[in-house]
Amino acid sequence: MNKVTIVGAGHVGATTARELAEMNRVHHVVLIDVVDGLPQGKALDIQEAAPIRRFETRVSGTNDYADTAGSGITIITAGIARKPGMSRDDLLSTNAKIVSEVTRSILQHSPDTCFIVVSNPVDIMTQLVRQISGRPKSQVMGMAGVLDTARFQTFVAAEVGCSVRDVIGMVLGGHGDQMVPLLRMCSVNGIPLRRLLPEPRLQEIVTRTQNGGAEIVGLLKSGSAFYAPGAAAATMARAIITDAKEVLPCVAALEGEFGIHDLMMGVPCVLGHGGVEKVIDFPLEPDEQALMTASAESVRKNIEFIKDMH
Predict the structure, then answer these.
(1) Does 138 share its domain with 149?
(2) I need a labelling partner for 84 at 20 to 30 A (CA). Which of 56, 223, 225, 305 fits?
(3) Looking at the annotation, which residues are catalytic?
(4) Strand order across the 167-168 sheet
(5) Domain of 237?
């Protein structure tokens, strides 16, 4: 996989391109956007950092999908960003049209590409990409859980006063207000989180994680998060490129795992050269299962909107 295309040269796309370039694991990163000059300028700026950051990756920008031909991985970040007061679902209509057109354009030049979807609402946009592309379920995934888990780990580390590297977290479910941090599975260097923090404080951290994107939107006032989302998308791509077999929470197709059928939602996945090589299914406690089921239904309510899109 010597070539990765990133669709959308906004803040998320450009940050993802820079992260991938600096990983020095892929030969060529292509940044594409409909705005003339935008991807070219950002790609050139990233490329000029190569002597400083010591990477050999080639970074180019384009407005022509022909330049994306032969991409092993395509990361879709295109779409409008959230504004204060908007939910991720509010973006559905506009971003569905953008993402569907992007998917068709990419497939004309890279029919065997593996898709990583970042555009919101990501669970439904990932389902839309799979529906339009017809790619196997292992080749279409969405970025949500890596970001949500990172936010949870950040908040826990700040509360406990420890390194973020010592916090093990797992956030599953839909990428929205009903995401499911599995507190039973969370620890600080092996110490169960519930032994370190009282339940009310843990629930406050859960709520902050669920509202993590909205918190940043509210602070920025004219945009949404991009540093952490870009790093998360690049991390997923690296796991595939390097055949890392890394377990990461991703939006993936479910066919009975966690009791959920015919839906794409955040679950722990093994990522390698084959894309989503395995969904790791395990028994949930009754309260956890209830939260996952509720999260699934929250995602499912938007499926009708994309059902007839081709």
Answers:
(1) no
(2) 305
(3) 175
(4) 167-168, 187-188, 191-192
(5) 145-306
